[in-house]
What we know:
This protein is an alpha+beta fold. 33% of the residues lie in helices and 34% in strands. The chain is built from 4 helices and 6 strands. It has helices spanning 2-7, 14-35, 54-61, 82-88, and strands at 45-52, 70-79, 92-97, 102-109, 116-123, 126-129. The strands form 2 sheets. A 4-stranded antiparallel β-sheet has the order 3-4-5-6, with no helix packed on it. A two-stranded antiparallel ribbon has the order 1-2. The longest helix is centred in the first third of the chain and has 22 residues, at 14-35.
Amino acid sequence: MALFRTDFSGRGELSERQQKLASMLSKLTKIAEEYNIAVLLTNQVQCTVYIHGFRERAKRELADPGATMTFVAGGALKPIGGHILAHASATRMFLRKGRGEERVAKLVDSPDRPESEATYKLDEGGWSDV
């Protein structure tokens, strides 16, 4: 997605970007089916932040905006590829850092598996169960 985000900027180019992304994903799907291989796509996420009570306190906090505002992650993290990328993927996983050296893999969408999570660790030997 990074290349698509740098080549196209702003809402005016959104339609063209999504069409080119769909075309590329279609080609990858055909290659995967023809050669019976898995295609691994990585994506970025964005965080939406809401400010509680901002309008009510805006005037008095303009002098010191961080003094009493409460920032709350609403909807938390969301993939940036949109519906085009989501529908092109058969299985979707979300990888995140856990406690210490642990990592968490969350199965978000799969045609034949329920949503679930697994913890793992990366070390010299590769992936290991925790």
